[in-house]
Amino acid sequence: MAHEDMSSRGPSFHADQVDSGQIDMLVALLDAQAALPGIKRMRRWAHDALAVGVGERALDIGSGTGSEAMTFAERVGADGDAVGIDPNPAMVALARRRAAAAGSAARFAEGSVYRLPFPDGYFDAIRCERVYQHLDDPVAATAEIARVLRPGGRVLLIDTDWHTAITHPGDPSVVAAMSASLLVSTPNPRSGRRLRGLLVAANFVIDDMGSEAVIWEPATALPLFGEMSRRAVEAGAITAEQHDRFRADLDAGFAAGDYHLSVTMFAVSAHKR
Ligand SMILES: C[S@@+](CC[C@H](N)C(=O)[O-])C[C@H]1O[C@@H](n2cnc3c(N)ncnc32)[C@H](O)[C@@H]1O
Q: Which residue's alpha carbon is at the smallest distance from atom 4 of ligand 1?
């Protein structure tokens, strides 16, 4: 898939567009999201559904800041193996630093979901959160997850479906144009609704599904709105005037407490036959 050049595209989580210079911005975004109550609830639910136990081998794919691999490490104990993998070397370095500072036994490696550096059937459980939206080939990714899981092993996929996003206030047509400008470089923006079908097609047995409409606070959403509107104006999708009107409406909504910013995340848990 062709991608725009980095300067017009802005920060990206796509594995082909890794730019270690953007790491601070990406980590700040992940940390802010991790603090949202909706994300915390979804993660708690996901860990309960996956039910990783003492002595198991567990993998977090696209492990980002490393927090969920560290949760695995607490669950598996000294006899287990908790691993995080991410294609961004700067993200892996940060996860290692955070794990060392926390005294966690989680280990981290560079790598992609398309070629997991593990033997067939190595893991008891795998989670993968908000990664599929950045994948050009989710079918190949799911097949590779199946390869490294043992028979009976569990998988838990979580992803956003960006077409469920709600932004209020703001002219809906302007919001839609801005959102389309941002999502043009996201290969799989409706990922959340596709997770179940991908797992079924890869011959997994579906065990449960979960969802959470994650409520964003203005401080978390504003950097994203800044990026969305910058791209939309640059692409000619909205005028500078429409942008200014949108921001004025939004700021008035924030000041009055009359706002709603949300997007739904979906999760599917399944096991390998
Ligand atoms: C939105 S972040 C989510 C990070 C973490 N899972 C979380 O929920 O906080 C997406 C992550 O997926 C990683 N990623 C992108 N392409 C990947 C691939 N092909 N294989 C594995 N991870 C990938 C990125 O480097 C990034 O850390």
A: 64
Say what the pLDDT of residue 139 is.
98
pTM comes to 0.93
How far is 196 from 187, CA to CA, in rounded Å?
18
What architecture is the 18-161+186-213+263-272 domain classified under in CATH? 3-Layer(aba) Sandwich (3.40)
Q: What token pair was written down for 138?
A: 């989710």
Return the pLDDT at 185.
Answer: 83
Q: Is the CB of 154 under 6 A from ligand 1?
A: no
Cα–Cα distances (Å) from 157 to 164, 169, 229, in that order, read 18, 32, 30
CB of 61 closer than 6 A to ligand 1?
Answer: yes
> What gap in Å lies between CA 128 and CA 108, rounded to an integer?
14
pLDDT tens for each residue of 123-147:
999 999 999 999 999 999 999 999 9
161 lines ligand 1 (CB under 6 A): no
- Domain positions in the chain are 18-161+186-213+263-272
Q: How far is the CA of 208 from the centre of ligand 1 (A)?
A: 23
In this structure, are residues 86 and 95 in contact, taking their beta carbons and an 8 Å threshold? Answer: yes
Ligand 1 atom 3: residue of nearest CA: 130
Q: Which residues of the chain have pLDDT under 50?
A: 1-8
Question: What pLDDT shows up at residue 171?
Answer: 94
Of all protein residues, the one whose alpha carbon is nearest to atom 16 of ligand 1 is 15
Token digits of residue 16:
């082909």
Distance 34 CA to ligand 1 centre (A): 14
pLDDT in tens, 79-125: 999 999 999 999 999 999 999 999 999 999 999 999 999 999 999 99
